[in-house]
Amino acid sequence: MINFLSPRYDQTLGYDGPRRRYDPRILADVADAITRSSPDFMLITLGGSEHFYHGAVNNPRPFQFILPDEPMSDCHPGAELVPYDLAREQFRVDLSGVLYILPQIRVLTPAPMLYLSPPPPVGPSHLIAAHMPPMWRTEAQMLGVPEPPLRYRLWQLFTDLADELCRDADIDFLPVPPLSIDKGGFLEERYRKDSLHANEEYGQLVLSEALKRVRAQRKQR
Amino acid sequence: MHPYETLPSHCFWRRSVAAVAPEQVDPVVSAKFTVSPLDRIATAGSCFAQHIARHLTSCGFNYYLTEPPHPTFRTPAIARYNYGTFTARYGNIYTVRQMLQLLKRAYGLFSPSEDIWHADGGRCIDPFRPQIQPKGFASEAEYRADRLRHFMAVRQAIENLDVLIFTLGLTEAWVSRIDGAVFPISPGVSGGSFDEQRHEFVNFGVDAVSRDLAETIDFVLERNTKARFILTVSPVPLIATYTGHSALVATTYSKSVLRVAADEIERRYNCVAYFPSYEIIVGNHARGRYFADDLRSVTDEGVEHVMRLFMRHYGAQPTTPGGSAVPRQDLDLQKAERHTDMVRQIAAVICDEESLDPLGLTEQKSH
């Protein structure tokens, strides 16, 4: 396993415009690991918290957008409506700035690759507020946590975009296990870990889905 | 002795046009009022009005935006969503009737029966802003929510503007036979479908344009007594005419009607001025050089001549391009960038905590 967030890699390289700068040793290590282990398949979890950038704390100018297939009933009167198409274009640029490395990983091996969808967002706003790092608590308290519908829409849009970018890179996208989603589209309580992440049980659920997918693909071949 | 002997130079063709360097020609003569850097200037009108809107901020004027772009969404694609093209996102307003209709709709005084065009994939087009975003609206829910916000922005503009620069563009239009609703372009061109049972062609005359213009001004003044108006006529010729005449003849008719109506209204209201951008661009002095190769688009040089005279006559005090204050848009952008950085760091901190976990398969983080 190659952990992109490992302290072994320089995590301070920042961004070049919308593009995250990756430590070049990451790709070298991935290539090396593939050469050494000749994997039957690869699971990728990369990025995934982008929806949280906009969903953790209210924007100083709160905004919202409406997904194409949802009714208007959940429109927040105090939030500025941004066209869905515009939100999609902006977030695609943002997410591409993280996932642009996928095609570079894809060419390293013909083995099947599965990109794991980020888990659904945590529903209750108070859980997000409670897990805020201390240095931002004052500002977060001042601005508040976005309403659940916006957090759901952000996750859904970023997930759709991740799926699209994976297809562009010829990488299979594994959606979240249906069992892990509650009636409102949020992460089931039993699978929550903190305000952003799912727990180990969720990980097992995903792994089981991933293995099912890989076996099914093998059968097809 | 005769009446012309004592007239100033600008009244004489040779002295004010023929014998003057083209770029020095100044048909404005004097402004009815001036515009201070603090006055909120709203813009509306045909495509030439876009040039004026674009230059106002760089000329140090206070360009009033009531439907500004959200600073988080700053992809270059945003230009195609018409934020800032005009004060609110109404798109090009070609006819005076269209302007009057917009005001009435914004205040709930008119609801056209044909108010949505459905397109493929559940997408929707606004018949009255068919090109406001590249592919229309993603859903009917979004269209209706956006229109509510847009009308609010129009009302905010009307009630708070100090100066409205309104550029008159066309007299030809397509209207609904059912309720007279006027479309900016023919149904079927950028959405919807043309149906001669429902749509008909009109070419407004001087009386109709003057009446609509007076009604528009009265409508604004009833809601904003301090409002002042600067009327201009777009020098851009008709791209096509449905009158059956030559496009050149139809253009002459259209611009003449608009020019006469503007003159009538300018003389009727103290708070209305006429700014001769039409004359500056198409006047003989320019010898056509203010038009690009298509003989329609106005060149940057032409726009610069117009804006230079606008600043000279309407600027209440000397202004420098760019001004010294940081435009509000830039402040918004800085605030949005700070916010995104902050939240990105929050996510990073939470993820850093995760990365401290052992890295076994069952313990790796789930994203």
Explain what the structure shows:
The complex is a heterodimer of chains A (221) and B (367). Chain A has helices at residues 24-37, 50-55, 84-99, 102-106, 125-130, 137-143, 148-168, 200-220; strands at 15-16, 19-20, 42-44, 63-64, 80-81, 113-116, 172-174. Chain A is mainly α and 221 residues long. In chain A, the strands form 3 sheets. Chain A has a 3-stranded parallel sheet with strand order 3-6-7, sandwiched between helices. In chain A, a hairpin with a 2-residue loop joins strand 1 (15-16) and strand 2. In chain A, helix 3 (84-99) crosses helix 7 (148-168). Chain A is globular, with a radius of gyration of 18 Å. With 367 residues, chain B is of the alpha/beta class. Chain B has 9 helices and 10 strands. The radius of gyration of chain B is 24 Å and the shape is globular. Chain B starts with 12 loop residues before the first helix and ends in a 12-residue tail after the last helix. The chains are: A mainly alpha (221), B alpha/beta (367). The interface between A and B is large, with 60 and 47 residues.
> How does the overall form of chain A come out from the CA principal axes?
globular
Radius of gyration of chain A: 18 Å
The spatial strand order of the largest sheet of chain A comes to 3-6-7
Q: What is the strand content of chain A? A: 5-15%
DSSP summary, beta strand count of chain B = 10
Assembly classification: heterodimer
**Proportion of strand residues of chain B:** 5-15%
> pLDDT below 50 for ≥5 consecutive residues: which ranges of chain B?
318-326, 356-367
* Helical residues, percent of chain B: 25-40%
Low-pLDDT residue spans of chain A? none
Q: Could you give the distance between the termini of chain B?
A: 93 Å
- Major sheet characteristics of chain A: 3 strands, parallel
User: Helices and strands of chain B: which structural class?
Assistant: alpha/beta
Number of helices of chain A: 8
What structural category do the secondary elements of chain A indicate? mainly alpha
Shape of chain B: globular
Give, in spatial order, the strands making up the sheet with the most strands of chain B: 2-1-5-9-10
Element pattern of chain A in H and E:
EEHEHEEHHEHHHEH
